[in-house]
Amino acid sequence: MNSSQNAPSTPSSADAQGSGAKNPFLAIGLFVRQVIAELRKVVVPTRRELILYSFTVLMFVFFMILLIFGLDAVFSWLSRIAFTVPDL
């Protein structure tokens, strides 16, 4: 189960205060506080991790390009065989 399935059924203190239902400035303030709280959770990768992740992504993309190119060539060859009229 994830945390959204375990959410309490009673309103939290922010909901109980009418956080935005009547005052849009309270809603904006709550939103900004939540954004800042989420940004504090962000983990910046090290230089080594960034290079490794970038290399992994580039290799995966290169592999997928080769796979799609190969499948395209095979299906093109098969369609030429299937749809050309043989010389009689």
What is the element layout, followed by pairings?
Blueprint: H1 13-16, H2 24-40, H3 47-83
Domain module count: 2
Q: Distance between the terminal alpha carbons, to the nearest Å? A: 67 Å
Percent in strands: under 5%
What would the principal axes of the Cα set say about the shape?
A: elongated
The ordered H/E elements are HHH
Q: What is the CA-atom radius of gyration, in angstroms? A: 28 Å
- What structural class results from the helix and strand content? mainly alpha
Query: What's the main sheet like?
Result: none
- Uncertain ranges: none
Helices, by number, come to 3
- Into which percent range does the helicity of residues fall? 55-70%
Number of strands: 0
What's the average pLDDT?
Answer: 85
Features:
single chain; 88 residues; mainly alpha; 2 domains; 0% strand; elongated
